[in-house]
């Protein structure tokens, strides 16, 4: 884990941090930052649940770095282009660059790429990963750049950055024309929203997304006065009034591991925000165990088809005790 490598490096004296501010990029909520002096640390995060986590623990949290830092610690995301973009952002604003990642996150590949650009001071291998550091090199060639895919703008690191994923396509094809106030829960970069807004009977659409990069893409992709954009945790989002329809392709991964509890939280959130006559449309991989959760918070659950890999479900008559 990240904390064991950083703590070990500091405790053994292998790593000596310069005086001054420390920027920590992309630290997941389960990261242990206690080896660092909290009053020197600024957490840079664009993932809403992580932002809330670090704010609750008293850290200053920003969505982008402010000014220059003595040290930047980068936690590597899984996607290689997103990792490069994060490193470029960090290296541009610090003197000493620290990079931490698990082998499963591609740290060996990133280390090899960095070594081609600049000499690395030290590499610490521990707990199925590596922590390495060096004087911040020029990584401007790795900076994030928007891309256009099938008429949509995406960015490195957002879910399904190379185009609409098969689940969203299956759900879009199954959706009838919707009406009333709709919530797109976990809206990503706006693929489903465009399908939803094709119906002129939709009066309002709330796009709810935890990844600010994805939501910024959605703002570019959805040019419709009925659309409202919410940077929020879908599991806790609460509209001002009960809504008519919730549509969702919920995530089911945190890192490399499948986490069905994420999708289950989306289901319970949908039931809470729907009016008594409301409808919930969702898509999921066929192997995911969502049926018990659906049955617990909806009176009626119907299989609406889908594809060999994905099931499309419509749930109606949310139960009052949902949530």
From TrEMBL:
One protein family per Pfam: MTS
Key words of the record: Cytoplasm, Methyltransferase, rRNA processing, S-adenosyl-L-methionine, Transferase
Domain Methyltransferase small: 152-313
Keyword match Chloroplast: no
Signal peptide: none
Xref: InterPro entries: DNA_methylase_N6_adenine_CS, RsmC/RlmG, SAM-dependent_MTases_sf, Small_mtfrase_dom
SUPFAM superfamilies, per the entry: S-adenosyl-L-methionine-dependent methyltransferases
GO molecular function list: N-methyltransferase activity; nucleic acid binding; S-adenosylmethionine-dependent methyltransferase activity
Gene3D superfamilies to which the protein is assigned, alphabetical: Vaccinia Virus protein VP39
Top-rank taxon, per record: Bacteria
Gene Ontology BP terms: methylation; rRNA processing
Name of the protein this chain belongs to: Methyltransferase
Source species: Maritimibacter harenae
Taxon lineage: Bacteria, Pseudomonadati, Pseudomonadota, Alphaproteobacteria, Rhodobacterales
């Amino acid at each position: 884990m990240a904390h064991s490598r950083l703590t070990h490096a500091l405790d053994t004296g292998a790593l000596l941090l310069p005086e001054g501010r420390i920027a920590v990029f992309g630290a997941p909520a389960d990261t242990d930052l206690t080896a660092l002096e909290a009053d020197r640390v600024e957490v840079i995060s664009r993932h809403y649940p992580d932002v809330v986590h670090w704010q609750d623990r008293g850290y200053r949290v920003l969505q982008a770095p402010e000014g220059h830092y003595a040290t930047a610690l980068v936690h590597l995301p899984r996607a290689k282009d997103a990792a490069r973009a994060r490193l470029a952002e960090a290296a541009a604003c610090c003197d000493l660059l620290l990079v931490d990642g698990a082998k499963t996150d591609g740290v060996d590949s990133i280390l090899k790429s960095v070594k081609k650009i600049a000499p690395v001071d030290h590499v610490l291998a521990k707990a199925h990963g590596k922590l390495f550091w060096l004087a911040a090199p020029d990584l401007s060639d790795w900076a994030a750049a928007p891309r256009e895919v099938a008429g949509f703008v995406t960015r490195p690191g957002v879910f399904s950055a190379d185009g609409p994923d098969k689940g969203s396509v299956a759900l879009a094809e199954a959706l009838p024309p919707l009406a009333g106030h709709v919530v797109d829960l976990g809206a990503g970069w706006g693929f489903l929203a465009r399908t939803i807004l094709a119906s002129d009977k939709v009066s309002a659409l709330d796009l709810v997304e935890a990844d600010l990069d994805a939501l910024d893409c959605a703002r570019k992709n959805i040019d419709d006065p009925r659309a409202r954009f919410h940077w929020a945790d879908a599991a806790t989002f609460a509209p001002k009034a009960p809504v008519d329809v919730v549509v969702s392709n919920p995530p089911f991964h945190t890192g490399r591991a499948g986490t069905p509890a994420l999708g289950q939280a989306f289901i319970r959130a949908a039931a809470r925000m729907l009016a008594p006559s409301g409808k919930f449309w969702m898509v999921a991989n066929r192997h995911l165990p969502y049926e018990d959760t659906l049955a617990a918070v909806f009176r009626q659950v119907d299989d609406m088809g889908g594809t060999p890999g994905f099931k499309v479900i419509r749930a109606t008559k949310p139960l009052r005790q949902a949530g």
